[in-house]
What does this fold into?
Amino acid sequence: MPAATTSGADAAPNGDAKSRDHNQGNQDKKYTVEQKAAVIRVRRCGATEFYEILGLEKSCSDAEVKKAYRKLSLLTHPDKNGYEGADEAFKMVSRAFQVLSDADKKQKYDRFGGDPDNRFGSGSAPSASPFSGFARSPGGGRGPMFEDEISPEELFNRFFGGGGMGGGPFGRVTNSDPLQRCFGPSFRFDSPEPPFILRRTMPRLKVDYYLNPAEVEDYSNRNFRDLDRRAESSYVTNIQYDCQIEVRTRNRMMDDAQGWFFQDTEKMREARNYEMRSCRRLDEWGFARNSY
It folds into this structure.
């Protein structure tokens, strides 16, 4: 995945000191295309659009909720993702998981919408913030992973079993690092750029990607085959994200063309002819248009 440096934009002027320090630290970190895409997609969602945040359907299973959280929490964790807004995206992913993995909260959310902790707390109103739900929650209905108070970082550490590692699961680059253990070396797709100079080609898609040789110097042929499959999966996921945007854009264009009383034939023709390049590529490859 393409590695890039952060834009270096300053933190919001009204942010607290801790937030400004964290954002300042992120400016020196890099991010991949997949990490950037994950942050952008999550932050496009509403604060309480929990299914959309995790990229799930309402009929999703508990296993699918966990799978989505596992993937997105690793992609958006601000200790590894230097793209602007990763911290907020990470918190949104965490809150979505906390709600959808709890049967009682999920039932209330499905029925009434909004953040169930805010809506059903004593006299509390729904909040636009995705983070307020990490405060103390009402009495019953907690899942076995959660206590009355838990931060996004605590949730992450508990999910990955990293609470006792010292400095969190991203404290050092070892086999116990969730990102290293679950995703392995970083890579980029578009073109080589130091240190990503070792070229490989995905056997099925015939798409090149580039690795840091230092990260794979001990890799066997089997390791490289596994890495090829992971690169393909990441690449397809990026295309699926783009396809989802194309679908929503075309649907919005068609809705606008339909109107309330009569159809604008010119606008409808434009909507139907809207180029959906990413979706077409997925169709040609035989992949689903949805990433989950």
Observations:
- The CA atoms of residues 145 and 159 lie 8 Å apart.
- Confidence is low (pLDDT under 50) at residues 1-27, 119-149, 162-183.
- The chain has twelve helices and five strands.
